[in-house]
Amino acid sequence: MMTNAEPDAAAIGHRFDNAEMGMLAHLYRGEVYRSTLWRTRLDQTTNWAVVTTGLALSLTYSGPEASPLPLILVGLLVAVFLMFEARRYRYFNVWRARCRLMETKMIQPILRGDGLAIDGKWNTLLANDYAKPRFHISYLRAVGRRLRKNYAYILTVQAVAYYGKLAIHPTSATGPSEFFDRAAIGPIPGFVVVLAGVLFHGSWIAIAVYTLSVEKRARIGRDLISIA
């Protein structure tokens, strides 16, 4: 996750005293606080995306003659929120990974009654992450995770609402030519607008699928290392 440094023999034989155990407890509380804080920031951008999408739906479906343009603009705005949230998720993932490491290597053995096991691996791993902090996943993988968790649903609603608007307002479209005529924006032909929408939504689908395959390969690699 952070480094492949060899365990220190001195670290393996070390046992934390009461002061050091208290420090670790406060360290865990601090990491949980930071993780919770960034989790809240993630929720904020998702809320912005939901609210703006709902506002665009209200404007677009306020009447048969209302323009579908707000749904196009909100799609671009949701993409911006996604980029913001992916950046925030990379920070959140750092704190989350540290908390998870301490939970599995510190708290779990103590709760089982095994005591705190100092194997020279997890503590070195955590120490190196504090010494040389870095992001644990790429920006593209962060985008893919937020897409699969939240934004895929928001963008799907936006796409269905937009194409539904073109199909039923002001009356049901009688053919493809009428459908494309309604999609036209000023001098931009409707066919170009619809094609741009297909490419836009196709791109986030491709990112979600590609990053999912990357996640699966990374997970398999970690499992093979743990087995070896």
Give structural notes:
Helix 3 (69-112) runs antiparallel to helix 5 (139-168). With 228 residues, the protein is mainly α. The protein is built from 7 helices and no strands. It has one domain (9-227). The model is unreliable at 1-5 and 223-228 (pLDDT under 50). The two termini are 16 Å apart. Helix content is 78%, strand content 0%. The chain has helices spanning 9-13, 18-60, 69-112, 122-131, 139-168, 176-183, 190-227.
Walk me through the topology:
Elements: H1 9-13, H2 18-60, H3 69-112, H4 122-131, H5 139-168, H6 176-183, H7 190-227
Helix pairs in contact: 2-3, 2-5, 3-5, 5-7, 6-7
Properties at a glance:
single chain, 228 residues, mainly alpha, 7 helices, 78% helix, 0% strand, disordered N terminus, disordered C terminus
Q: What series of H and E elements makes up the topology?
A: HHHHHHH
Q: Enumerate how many helices there are, as a single number.
A: 7
**Overall residue-averaged pLDDT value:** 86
Query: Which blocks of ≥5 consecutive residues have pLDDT under 50?
Result: 1-5, 223-228
Q: What general outline do the C-alpha atoms trace? A: elongated
Structural class: mainly alpha
Q: Give the helix level as a range of percent.
A: over 70%
State the end-to-end distance: 16 Å
The percent range for strand residues is: under 5%
- Work out the count of structural domains: 1
Q: Please give the largest β-sheet.
A: none
Q: In angstroms, what is the radius of gyration?
A: 25 Å
What is the number of E strands?
Answer: 0
